[in-house]
Amino acid sequence: MSRECQEREAGGQPVKTLQYMLRRLRGRWSWMPFVPLDGCFGETTLEAVMIFQREMGLAVTGVVDLETWNAIREQWVAFEADQAGPRPVHLYPRENGEVRPGEQRLFFAIPQAMLQILSVFLEGLRPCEGEGRNGEKSACNVCWLQRAAGAPETGVMDWRTWDTLSRLYEVFVVRSSDGPAILSWG
Question: What is the rounded CA–CA span in Å between residue 140 and residue 155?
Answer without folding.
Answer: 6
